[in-house]
Amino acid sequence: EVQLVQSGAEVKKPGESLRISCKASGNSFSSYWIGWVRQMSGKGLEWIGIIWPGGSETKYSPSFEGQVTISADKSINTAYLQWRRLKASDTGIYYCARLDCSSASCHNDYGMDVWGQGTTVTVSS
Amino acid sequence: DIQMTQSPSSLSASVGDRVTITCRASQSIGYYLNWYQQKPGKAPKLLIYAAASLQSGVPSRFSGSGSGTDFTLTISGLQPEDFVTYYCQQSYSIPRTFGQGTKVEIK
Predict the structure, then answer these.
(1) Which secondary structure element, helix H or strand E, spans residue A99, and what is its range?
(2) How big is the CA angle at B39 (ends A81 and A119), to the nearest 5 degrees?
(3) Which residues of A fall within a CB distance of 8 Å from B50?
(4) Parallel, antiparallel, or unpaired: how do β-strands B70-76 and B18-25 relate?
(5) Widest CA span of chain B, in angstroms?
(6) Which residue in the set A45, A62, A108 is minimally distant from B44, CB to CB?
(7) A43-92 pLDDT tens trace
(8) Of A52, A111, B6, B10, whose CA is between 20 and 30 Å from A45?
């Protein structure tokens, strides 16, 4: 059974860079799209974007495009979420999850069926 | 973006009750609607996908229905562990979007 294990909590200052990771167990990493979701303290879920590790194709929410970069290294079954210049408003919990897509292009999907445990990112001066 | 509106935002119920949460999409999404449960301090868990399909391992007291723009999640016979927060999500188009959540509280 696939498991997603995320990197540990981070405390950063505004303007710093950061990359958090999501490592998948098992052999099928390149066959599934991986997504990232943000949850700010006491708030709901926000969809950031997705990546297909097999070809590194990405799709972003307009709300996050240009603010973060999603990447993957299929040789080590790991997806990443990266910021070049953090802001205090980036503070939150970030989850990675596997998508059960209806096609290779993931135009539609049947939900995010495997989740990482979440990475808490705190940005404060 | 497709807007997802859940109602109610919160509800109070008792163990054993039957509760229904609704989710409305701002445009038709076919049956590409998923429901998640989130317990405090934990990652969301997929309950229902494609509007009405029960995810493996999820108790049968959870059920979903609907298509187009209007969807419902029903919990038949609330258990103590069900008093948490539920989210709908459309998976019809990019960006995927979530409802604002419904917190189910003990009466």
Answers:
(1) strand A92-101
(2) 20
(3) 110-111
(4) antiparallel
(5) 38
(6) A45
(7) 999 999 999 998 889 999 999 999 999 999 999 999 999 999 999 999 99
(8) A52
